[in-house]
Amino acid sequence: MKQSPKQPAKKRRAQLIKAAERVFARKGYAGATTEEIARTAGLTKGALYFHFRNKEDVFFAVVKEVNDSIARKITRALDEEANPEKAIEKAIQSAFKLIEDHKFLTVEFWQKAHTIRRVKDFLAEEHKNMQNQIVRFLQKSGDLKKRECDSFFTLLHAIFDGLMVRQTCYGGEDDLRGLSKQVVEITKLYLKKNKLKLG
Amino acid sequence: MKQSPKQPAKKRRAQLIKAAERVFARKGYAGATTEEIARTAGLTKGALYFHFRNKEDVFFAVVKEVNDSIARKITRALDEEANPEKAIEKAIQSAFKLIEDHKFLTVEFWQKAHTIRRVKDFLAEEHKNMQNQIVRFLQKSGDLKKRECDSFFTLLHAIFDGLMVRQTCYGGEDDLRGLSKQVVEITKLYLKKNKLKLG
DNA sequence: TTTTAAATACCGACCGGTAGGTATTAAGAT
DNA sequence: ATCTTAATACCTACCGGTCGGTATTTAAAA
Predict the structure, then answer these.
(1) Which of A107, A151, A193 comes nearest B174 by C-beta?
(2) Mean pLDDT, chain A, as a whole number?
């Protein structure tokens, strides 16, 4: 029977990951069959298993791809502004966009972290790396204690995770844009309160 | 062979729900078998299916039970204090306890809200009810705009959901108690900033 | 340049295992 | 005797994963 045109393994793997993102986001881990993922990529299961060890392996590749993409976007937002306060504001705005892009998948990641050890370890590692990055950024930009920066990051990050949940489960009436402004305001308030002066 | 002593349907149902809570919390929806839920309750599948229509029905009963329990605890915390600021503080402290008690299950609820319509509808309804309750409480206690109360609730609620995620996925270094104090402080700050005077 | 061989990527039929769910039967209580 | 609750045996459907085979591409040899 007629085959899909051959592609280099790396390229095909990336394509399968893209297809998997869509199917996992739509149907969740259990609801997504390996057959549907392969079909979405224009292939069959045999091909999928040629490139990946098993279903969990595919999922883990998606976890890495999405989280790496998020980290790149936040980093770019921080780097694009010289003024620290504006850089934080820009990073917050980027984070809000990511809520809409990845809300279903990230809830799936959290749920699966409970049963797949390497997913949990990876998410913990990425979270820690982002915390270190943000804390370093804040300390570089002003005179402030590490402990307060840590708390700041923890609560800010919790707000974003919580808004992910809200967008997937509660169907928020408020516009995310309005909330974005609120979060920027609270951030400035909090930084002032704890004498975290920037610039 | 020897049967478990018979119980009134209502009592047995409650017992099965308790068992289901534990198994769903530990293994997630897919990983939890109806056989294991029955066994955990000291019964067999036949009995489980006598009391429940199907697996999804068991899960939905757990969703209702846990969310109702949470709502009761928050309400009690608000009612126990006459002073509004202290009432809010107490409610926040109760909410922090609930994070530890229900973190795995709530992530499971959010994940399943994506594929089970009635779970999503129920969570949205409960969220709305709690929002109305908190907003009414704030308005009763001080002169304040509904829109600002709404935002306040949304962000505060997001923090708790986000901390749920953190406790399940990121393995936070910070003590929740320290964060509890921070959240109380931010709450007061925010209420002051928006001129939400209480008392 | 052409032919042949080898390597790579992909297809699809099939299988084993699992779990949800049901029909029937049994046991216990009233 | 009747009703309620519980147990058992079994069925069915589905899915993850395998493997024999095929098609396509690349490399080597003539």
Answers:
(1) A151
(2) 89
DSSP 8-state assignment for residue A53: S
- Locate CATH 1.10.10.60 in chain B: 1-52
> Angle formed by the axes of helices B176-193 and A176-193, to 10°?
110
Distances (CA, A) of B32 to B108, B112, B118: 12, 13, 20
In CATH, what is the architecture of B56-193? Orthogonal Bundle (1.10)
Q: Which nucleotide minimizes the distance between its C1' and the CA of B41?
A: D6
Give the least confident one: A1-10, A96-105, A117-126, A133-142.
Answer: A1-10
**A44 CA: distance to closest CA in chain B (Å):** 25
Class of domain A54-193: mainly alpha
Digit-coded pLDDT (tens) for B111-125:
999 999 999 999 999
Rounded Cα–Cα distance for residues A82 and A93 (Å): 16
For the stretch A27-79, pLDDT in tens is 999 999 999 999 999 999 999 999 999 999 999 999 999 999 999 999 999 99
Q: How far is the CA of B25 from the C1' of C26 (A)?
A: 34
User: Per the CB < 8 Å rule, is B159 touching A154?
Assistant: no
Q: Is the separation of the CB atoms in B90 and B78 below 8 Å?
A: yes
Q: Are A180 and A93 in contact (CB under 8 A)?
A: yes
Look at B165 and A150 and tell me if their CB atoms are within 8 Å: no
Of A35-39, A172-176, B128-132, the least confident: A172-176
Give the CATH class of B1-52.
mainly alpha
Using DSSP's 3-state secondary structure scheme, residue A145 falls into coil
